[in-house]
Amino acid sequence: xxxxxxxxxxxSQTTANDNQVLPxxxxxxxxxxxxxxxxxxxxxxxxxxxxxxxxxxxxAVKAAGPLFAILGFLIFPFIWSIPEAxxxxxxxxxxxxxxxxxxxxxxxxGRYIGSLMGTFKYLxxxxxxxxxxxxxxxxxxxxxxxxxxxxxxxxxxCISTVVLSFINFTGLTIVGYVxxxxxVVSLLPFIVMSVMAIPKISPQNWxxxxxxSVKKDWNLYFNTLFWNLNFWDNVSTMAGEVEKxxxxxxIALLCAxxxxxxxxxxxLMAVSGVGDLNQLEWESGYMADAARMISGQWLKxxxxxxxxxxxxxxxxxxLSSSCFQLLGMAELGFMPKxxxxxxxxxxTPYVGILLSTAIILSVSFLDFTNIIGAxxxxxxxxxxxxxxxxLRLRSIYPEIKRPFRVPIRLPGLIVMCxxxxxxxIFIMAIATKVVWLISGFMIVGAVLWCxxxxxxxxxxxxxxxxxxxx
Length: 470
Description:
Distance between the termini: 19 Å
Shape: globular
Oligomer: single chain
Structural class: mainly alpha
Order of helices and strands: HHHHHHHHHHHHHHHH
Number of strands: 0
Mean pLDDT: 85
Number of helices: 16
Strand content: under 5%
Helix content: 55-70%
């Protein structure tokens, strides 16, 4: 069984005992039995879906100074990460199937909105993935200057993308345990650095508003927080691959939230508390330079190696979620049946991996500043649909059996969703004109793609699984 779903879009009659259960819909071709994800690998997969370590949090200090950076990473999880994680836990345990948020939007608003949600989220994630091989090479060229530019750099990006995609092909269980290993190894140098920094910390540095000569860049500040603390719902697309998802998901999400927040705030306080502040030096990668200042060159190298491992973990986790999303959409009849095919050797959705890898390679050499901004714009649209889907599902199926339930009534849930929704609208509003233009083209493309899929299905140009609504 890979999903529990309603047989139709209309709400069914509820009962007074709060035990209404959704009828089961199985895919046309059930996958062969496979090893399921257990708790520890799932925790680290979620961790790499979201963070992968404190790499990339430095621009928050550059943008607004230490105090606002610390407050941001302390407060933002409560208004963004925790609500998103709670919603993911409830809906993933109620609808435990591959496809995740696509299932939720489909159940709430119908087939087309579900398909549009899937397209928005898939594009945002797969374009985001393309940054990680390039970031790996950026760190490697500090040790091997030959990778700094030109053909060697481009060849290294292509080879690393293909190799990392092959690791994903070998199976989600292997990817999960690789994530555990990468998580431990990449976090260790920050633990060492934070401990060694304790005698050198000046607490008054933490309340600094930054240098007066440096203008506050709130666009960079909020985008840095958003970039480092989103994608909690990505793991929902692999719910059908998790052992006992009703029990495992809530625990895994709670542990991942704690791990992620600690991995950001502890190194940030350690480094910002040491020495005199030069705000302009706080670019991505500054943590490695700070490690050299705190303990020596050896720790700088260790953190740079950890950065490469972190980017590998991010690549593997997000590629897994994107290809299992396509598999789930194929099972639902939203994508051609071929996207539901699994490898005979590893039981992985190899067609989704191949498509995602092709897209990653095609955009790997572009300037990511505006492209990633547009990907975040699409992700924001998808999250607004997700919040709306959650509230509607709570409204139209109040008595459905929920293995995990956010212990708040509907009016409180509306408030809980309005706060992060306001932030999403703010992030979209402050986007640059170029990002708005790119996003507009991508949105039009997503809408046209959904119409094309409907035409292919209605005219039987491609084979589809039976629609769950039929």
